[in-house]
Amino acid sequence: MRLYSLSFLFVISLFFACGNGETNATADEPVQAGPVQVSEQTDDANVSALPVATEVAKENMVKEVPVIEKKIQKEPDLPKEFEETPEEPVEAKPEKPVIEAPHQDPRPNPVVEDAKKEKVEEEKPAVAAAPSHAIWDGLLRKYVNSAGRVNYAGLKNEMGKLNEYLDVLAANPPQTAWARGEKMAFWINAYNAFTVKLILDNYPVSSITRLHGGQPWKVRWIKIGGKTYTLDEIENSILRPKFKDARIHFAVNCAAKSCPPLLNRAWTAQNLESNFEKQARAFINNPAFNKISPSAVQVSKIFEWYAADFGDLTGFLNRYSKVKIKPGAKVSYLDYDWALNSQ
Q1: How far apart are the C-alpha atoms of 285 and 148, rounded to whole Å?
Q2: What sign does the CA torsion over 117, 118, 124, 126 have?
Q3: 127 within a domain of the structure (yes/no)
Protein backbone atom coordinates (compact mmCIF):
# COMPACT_ATOMS: atom_id res chain seq x y z
CA MET A 1 0.00 0.00 0.00
CA ARG A 2 2.85 2.28 0.71
CA LEU A 3 4.11 1.84 -2.80
CA TYR A 4 0.75 2.61 -4.36
CA SER A 5 0.30 5.81 -2.25
CA LEU A 6 3.68 7.08 -3.29
CA SER A 7 2.94 6.44 -6.92
CA PHE A 8 -0.39 8.31 -6.61
CA LEU A 9 1.30 11.34 -5.09
CA PHE A 10 3.93 11.30 -7.83
CA VAL A 11 1.27 11.35 -10.54
CA ILE A 12 -0.60 14.22 -8.83
CA SER A 13 2.58 16.24 -8.64
CA LEU A 14 3.25 15.73 -12.34
CA PHE A 15 -0.30 16.77 -13.15
CA PHE A 16 0.01 20.07 -11.31
CA ALA A 17 3.46 20.62 -12.70
CA CYS A 18 2.19 20.36 -16.25
CA GLY A 19 -0.85 22.51 -15.67
CA ASN A 20 -4.53 21.88 -15.18
CA GLY A 21 -5.73 23.35 -18.46
CA GLU A 22 -6.98 21.20 -21.35
CA THR A 23 -5.29 21.57 -24.71
CA ASN A 24 -7.77 21.51 -27.56
CA ALA A 25 -6.30 20.43 -30.86
CA THR A 26 -7.64 18.73 -33.86
CA ALA A 27 -5.89 15.88 -35.58
CA ASP A 28 -4.85 18.24 -38.34
CA GLU A 29 -3.53 21.06 -36.13
CA PRO A 30 -0.30 20.84 -34.18
CA VAL A 31 -0.49 21.07 -30.45
CA GLN A 32 0.93 24.32 -29.18
CA ALA A 33 2.45 24.47 -25.76
CA GLY A 34 1.26 27.32 -23.56
CA PRO A 35 1.77 28.62 -20.10
CA VAL A 36 0.44 26.50 -17.37
CA GLN A 37 -2.65 28.07 -15.79
CA VAL A 38 -3.77 27.23 -12.34
CA SER A 39 -7.47 27.12 -11.67
CA GLU A 40 -8.84 29.92 -9.52
CA GLN A 41 -10.64 27.35 -7.42
CA THR A 42 -7.36 25.63 -6.45
CA ASP A 43 -6.79 25.57 -2.76
CA ASP A 44 -3.79 27.70 -1.96
CA ALA A 45 -2.88 25.46 0.95
CA ASN A 46 -2.73 22.36 -1.27
CA VAL A 47 -0.57 24.14 -3.84
CA SER A 48 1.89 25.26 -1.29
CA ALA A 49 2.16 21.72 0.09
CA LEU A 50 2.94 20.09 -3.27
CA PRO A 51 6.69 20.69 -3.35
CA VAL A 52 7.07 19.17 0.09
CA ALA A 53 5.05 16.09 -0.86
CA THR A 54 7.03 15.68 -4.03
CA GLU A 55 10.34 15.70 -2.22
CA VAL A 56 9.06 13.17 0.33
CA ALA A 57 7.85 10.92 -2.48
CA LYS A 58 11.21 11.10 -4.20
CA GLU A 59 13.07 10.13 -1.05
CA ASN A 60 10.73 7.20 -0.41
CA MET A 61 11.04 5.99 -4.02
CA VAL A 62 14.83 6.03 -3.79
CA LYS A 63 14.61 3.89 -0.67
CA GLU A 64 12.09 1.48 -2.22
CA VAL A 65 13.73 0.96 -5.60
CA PRO A 66 16.58 -1.26 -4.34
CA VAL A 67 14.04 -3.35 -2.43
CA ILE A 68 11.91 -3.76 -5.55
CA GLU A 69 14.97 -4.69 -7.63
CA LYS A 70 15.95 -7.27 -5.05
CA LYS A 71 12.46 -8.80 -5.12
CA ILE A 72 12.49 -8.93 -8.93
CA GLN A 73 15.95 -10.48 -9.09
CA LYS A 74 15.12 -13.12 -6.49
CA GLU A 75 14.01 -16.34 -8.26
CA PRO A 76 10.82 -17.96 -7.04
CA ASP A 77 11.19 -21.10 -5.03
CA LEU A 78 10.83 -24.29 -7.15
CA PRO A 79 8.89 -27.33 -5.99
CA LYS A 80 11.06 -30.05 -4.52
CA GLU A 81 10.51 -32.37 -7.47
CA PHE A 82 12.10 -29.77 -9.78
CA GLU A 83 14.98 -28.88 -7.53
CA GLU A 84 18.33 -29.90 -8.94
CA THR A 85 20.14 -32.41 -6.87
CA PRO A 86 23.78 -31.73 -6.41
CA GLU A 87 25.98 -33.89 -8.59
CA GLU A 88 27.75 -36.56 -6.71
CA PRO A 89 31.48 -36.44 -7.13
CA VAL A 90 32.72 -39.03 -9.63
CA GLU A 91 35.45 -41.11 -8.23
CA ALA A 92 38.33 -41.41 -10.65
CA LYS A 93 38.93 -45.03 -11.58
CA PRO A 94 42.49 -46.13 -11.25
CA GLU A 95 44.12 -46.62 -14.61
CA LYS A 96 45.05 -50.16 -15.53
CA PRO A 97 48.73 -50.68 -15.41
CA VAL A 98 50.28 -51.01 -18.86
CA ILE A 99 51.88 -54.39 -19.19
CA GLU A 100 54.60 -54.42 -21.76
CA ALA A 101 54.83 -57.46 -24.00
CA PRO A 102 57.81 -59.60 -23.23
CA HIS A 103 60.70 -59.15 -25.58
CA GLN A 104 60.54 -61.67 -28.41
CA ASP A 105 63.59 -63.11 -29.99
CA PRO A 106 63.42 -62.18 -33.71
CA ARG A 107 65.39 -65.29 -34.62
CA PRO A 108 63.24 -68.23 -35.79
CA ASN A 109 62.69 -70.98 -33.27
CA PRO A 110 63.66 -74.28 -34.94
CA VAL A 111 61.16 -76.22 -32.85
CA VAL A 112 58.28 -73.89 -33.73
CA GLU A 113 59.25 -73.74 -37.41
CA ASP A 114 59.41 -77.53 -37.65
CA ALA A 115 55.97 -77.78 -36.02
CA LYS A 116 54.57 -75.30 -38.58
CA LYS A 117 56.05 -77.27 -41.49
CA GLU A 118 54.61 -80.51 -40.16
CA LYS A 119 51.18 -78.88 -39.83
CA VAL A 120 51.30 -77.56 -43.41
CA GLU A 121 52.39 -80.96 -44.71
CA GLU A 122 49.54 -82.62 -42.86
CA GLU A 123 47.03 -80.22 -44.42
CA LYS A 124 48.30 -80.82 -47.96
CA PRO A 125 46.56 -83.62 -49.83
CA ALA A 126 48.70 -86.71 -50.12
CA VAL A 127 50.40 -87.07 -53.49
CA ALA A 128 50.81 -90.59 -54.82
CA ALA A 129 54.47 -91.49 -55.10
CA ALA A 130 55.95 -92.72 -58.34
CA PRO A 131 55.33 -96.46 -58.69
CA SER A 132 58.04 -99.05 -58.43
CA HIS A 133 59.38 -100.47 -61.67
CA ALA A 134 60.80 -103.55 -59.96
CA ILE A 135 58.56 -106.10 -61.76
CA TRP A 136 59.49 -104.72 -65.16
CA ASP A 137 63.16 -104.56 -64.20
CA GLY A 138 63.11 -108.26 -63.24
CA LEU A 139 61.54 -109.29 -66.56
CA LEU A 140 64.04 -107.26 -68.59
CA ARG A 141 67.02 -108.71 -66.79
CA LYS A 142 65.73 -112.21 -67.40
CA TYR A 143 64.52 -112.02 -71.02
CA VAL A 144 66.57 -109.24 -72.72
CA ASN A 145 70.30 -109.59 -73.46
CA SER A 146 72.98 -106.89 -73.48
CA ALA A 147 72.47 -106.32 -77.22
CA GLY A 148 68.82 -105.52 -76.66
CA ARG A 149 67.41 -108.67 -78.25
CA VAL A 150 64.29 -110.07 -76.62
CA ASN A 151 63.34 -113.65 -75.78
CA TYR A 152 59.66 -113.23 -76.60
CA ALA A 153 58.89 -116.94 -76.35
CA GLY A 154 60.18 -117.14 -72.77
CA LEU A 155 58.65 -113.83 -71.76
CA LYS A 156 55.25 -114.95 -73.01
CA ASN A 157 55.20 -117.54 -70.23
CA GLU A 158 55.25 -114.71 -67.71
CA MET A 159 52.51 -112.60 -69.21
CA GLY A 160 50.87 -112.51 -65.77
CA LYS A 161 53.76 -110.55 -64.31
CA LEU A 162 53.86 -108.19 -67.27
CA ASN A 163 50.13 -107.49 -66.95
CA GLU A 164 50.58 -106.91 -63.22
CA TYR A 165 53.19 -104.26 -63.96
CA LEU A 166 50.99 -102.61 -66.58
CA ASP A 167 48.16 -102.47 -64.03
CA VAL A 168 50.51 -100.64 -61.65
CA LEU A 169 51.20 -98.04 -64.35
CA ALA A 170 47.49 -97.68 -65.14
CA ALA A 171 46.65 -97.04 -61.47
CA ASN A 172 49.51 -94.59 -60.83
CA PRO A 173 49.65 -91.95 -63.58
CA PRO A 174 52.31 -89.23 -63.32
CA GLN A 175 51.52 -86.42 -60.87
CA THR A 176 52.45 -82.76 -61.17
CA ALA A 177 54.47 -82.99 -57.96
CA TRP A 178 56.68 -85.74 -59.33
CA ALA A 179 60.26 -84.90 -60.26
CA ARG A 180 61.10 -84.54 -63.93
CA GLY A 181 63.15 -87.74 -63.89
CA GLU A 182 60.28 -89.71 -62.37
CA LYS A 183 57.92 -88.58 -65.10
CA MET A 184 60.36 -89.34 -67.90
CA ALA A 185 61.18 -92.79 -66.51
CA PHE A 186 57.47 -93.58 -66.17
CA TRP A 187 56.64 -92.79 -69.80
CA ILE A 188 59.75 -94.50 -71.24
CA ASN A 189 58.97 -97.71 -69.32
CA ALA A 190 55.30 -97.44 -70.33
CA TYR A 191 56.18 -97.14 -74.02
CA ASN A 192 58.54 -100.13 -73.94
CA ALA A 193 56.38 -102.39 -71.75
CA PHE A 194 53.18 -101.80 -73.77
CA THR A 195 55.12 -102.40 -77.02
CA VAL A 196 56.33 -105.75 -75.67
CA LYS A 197 52.77 -106.65 -74.66
CA LEU A 198 51.55 -105.79 -78.17
CA ILE A 199 54.08 -108.26 -79.61
CA LEU A 200 53.28 -110.97 -77.04
CA ASP A 201 49.52 -110.63 -77.61
CA ASN A 202 50.21 -111.41 -81.30
CA TYR A 203 53.20 -113.70 -80.96
CA PRO A 204 54.62 -115.27 -83.05
CA VAL A 205 54.87 -112.35 -85.49
CA SER A 206 57.77 -111.45 -87.77
CA SER A 207 57.44 -107.64 -87.52
CA ILE A 208 55.47 -105.07 -85.62
CA THR A 209 54.51 -103.56 -88.97
CA ARG A 210 52.43 -106.69 -89.61
CA LEU A 211 50.00 -105.53 -86.95
CA HIS A 212 47.03 -103.16 -87.40
CA GLY A 213 47.64 -102.55 -91.07
CA GLY A 214 51.20 -101.39 -90.55
CA GLN A 215 50.12 -98.63 -88.15
CA PRO A 216 50.25 -100.19 -84.67
CA TRP A 217 51.46 -96.88 -83.18
CA LYS A 218 48.14 -95.23 -84.05
CA VAL A 219 45.89 -97.66 -82.17
CA ARG A 220 44.32 -96.27 -78.98
CA TRP A 221 44.45 -99.06 -76.40
CA ILE A 222 46.86 -98.07 -73.59
CA LYS A 223 44.94 -97.20 -70.40
CA ILE A 224 46.72 -95.03 -67.83
CA GLY A 225 44.98 -93.03 -65.11
CA GLY A 226 41.55 -93.10 -66.69
CA LYS A 227 42.85 -92.00 -70.11
CA THR A 228 43.53 -94.05 -73.19
CA TYR A 229 46.67 -93.44 -75.25
CA THR A 230 48.39 -94.62 -78.40
CA LEU A 231 52.09 -95.44 -78.61
CA ASP A 232 52.47 -92.49 -80.93
CA GLU A 233 50.93 -90.12 -78.35
CA ILE A 234 53.26 -91.30 -75.60
CA GLU A 235 56.32 -90.63 -77.79
CA ASN A 236 55.29 -87.60 -79.86
CA SER A 237 52.77 -85.83 -77.60
CA ILE A 238 54.37 -86.43 -74.19
CA LEU A 239 58.02 -87.48 -74.21
CA ARG A 240 59.39 -85.39 -77.07
CA PRO A 241 57.52 -82.07 -76.67
CA LYS A 242 57.39 -81.99 -72.87
CA PHE A 243 60.93 -83.05 -72.03
CA LYS A 244 62.79 -81.91 -75.16
CA ASP A 245 65.70 -84.31 -74.91
CA ALA A 246 66.88 -85.93 -78.17
CA ARG A 247 68.36 -88.86 -76.24
CA ILE A 248 64.82 -90.13 -75.66
CA HIS A 249 65.13 -91.77 -79.11
CA PHE A 250 67.82 -94.08 -77.70
CA ALA A 251 65.56 -95.10 -74.81
CA VAL A 252 62.24 -96.05 -76.47
CA ASN A 253 62.16 -99.28 -78.48
CA CYS A 254 59.78 -100.12 -81.35
CA ALA A 255 60.53 -103.88 -81.39
CA ALA A 256 62.49 -103.66 -84.70
CA LYS A 257 66.08 -104.61 -85.46
CA SER A 258 67.05 -101.14 -86.63
CA CYS A 259 65.52 -99.50 -83.55
CA PRO A 260 67.96 -98.48 -80.78
CA PRO A 261 68.36 -101.60 -78.57
CA LEU A 262 65.95 -102.18 -75.66
CA LEU A 263 67.80 -101.57 -72.40
CA ASN A 264 67.76 -104.67 -70.18
CA ARG A 265 67.03 -102.53 -67.11
CA ALA A 266 64.01 -100.50 -66.09
CA TRP A 267 64.45 -96.74 -66.32
CA THR A 268 64.32 -94.83 -63.03
CA ALA A 269 64.86 -91.25 -61.96
CA GLN A 270 68.18 -92.34 -60.44
CA ASN A 271 69.68 -94.01 -63.54
CA LEU A 272 68.06 -91.77 -66.15
CA GLU A 273 71.02 -89.53 -66.99
CA SER A 274 73.67 -92.24 -66.93
CA ASN A 275 71.58 -94.54 -69.14
CA PHE A 276 70.86 -91.72 -71.60
CA GLU A 277 74.60 -91.22 -72.09
CA LYS A 278 75.30 -94.94 -72.23
CA GLN A 279 72.58 -95.68 -74.80
CA ALA A 280 73.46 -92.70 -77.03
CA ARG A 281 77.14 -93.62 -77.15
CA ALA A 282 76.46 -97.35 -77.77
CA PHE A 283 73.97 -96.70 -80.56
CA ILE A 284 75.99 -94.04 -82.45
CA ASN A 285 79.23 -96.08 -82.38
CA ASN A 286 77.58 -99.41 -83.36
CA PRO A 287 78.31 -100.07 -87.07
CA ALA A 288 75.08 -102.09 -87.30
CA PHE A 289 73.20 -98.82 -86.96
CA ASN A 290 75.66 -96.10 -88.13
CA LYS A 291 78.80 -95.98 -90.29
CA ILE A 292 80.93 -92.97 -89.46
CA SER A 293 84.12 -91.61 -91.05
CA PRO A 294 85.69 -88.13 -90.89
CA SER A 295 84.45 -87.09 -94.35
CA ALA A 296 81.22 -89.08 -94.71
CA VAL A 297 78.61 -90.64 -92.45
CA GLN A 298 75.81 -93.11 -93.04
CA VAL A 299 73.40 -92.95 -90.16
CA SER A 300 70.05 -94.35 -88.98
CA LYS A 301 66.80 -93.06 -90.44
CA ILE A 302 65.95 -91.90 -86.91
CA PHE A 303 68.27 -88.90 -87.46
CA GLU A 304 66.31 -88.03 -90.57
CA TRP A 305 62.80 -88.60 -89.16
CA TYR A 306 63.49 -86.53 -86.06
CA ALA A 307 66.03 -84.06 -87.46
CA ALA A 308 64.44 -81.17 -85.54
CA ASP A 309 65.27 -82.86 -82.22
CA PHE A 310 68.99 -83.21 -83.03
CA GLY A 311 69.65 -79.78 -84.54
CA ASP A 312 73.23 -79.66 -85.82
CA LEU A 313 73.58 -83.36 -86.63
CA THR A 314 77.37 -83.36 -87.06
CA GLY A 315 77.82 -81.55 -83.77
CA PHE A 316 75.46 -83.94 -81.97
CA LEU A 317 77.18 -87.04 -83.39
CA ASN A 318 80.62 -85.71 -82.43
CA ARG A 319 79.52 -85.55 -78.77
CA TYR A 320 79.46 -89.40 -78.72
CA SER A 321 81.29 -90.64 -81.82
CA LYS A 322 84.74 -92.16 -81.44
CA VAL A 323 85.54 -90.89 -84.92
CA LYS A 324 85.36 -87.13 -85.23
CA ILE A 325 83.40 -85.93 -88.19
CA LYS A 326 84.77 -82.98 -90.18
CA PRO A 327 82.59 -79.97 -90.92
CA GLY A 328 80.80 -80.36 -94.25
CA ALA A 329 81.04 -84.17 -94.22
CA LYS A 330 78.58 -85.93 -96.48
CA VAL A 331 75.53 -87.35 -94.65
CA SER A 332 73.32 -90.19 -95.89
CA TYR A 333 70.75 -92.50 -94.25
CA LEU A 334 70.64 -96.28 -94.04
CA ASP A 335 67.58 -98.40 -94.76
CA TYR A 336 65.52 -99.34 -91.77
CA ASP A 337 65.08 -103.00 -90.84
CA TRP A 338 61.63 -103.64 -89.37
CA ALA A 339 62.21 -107.31 -88.59
CA LEU A 340 61.39 -108.33 -85.01
CA ASN A 341 64.22 -107.73 -82.54
CA SER A 342 64.01 -111.23 -81.16
CA GLN A 343 66.91 -113.46 -80.01
Answers
A1: 15
A2: positive
A3: no
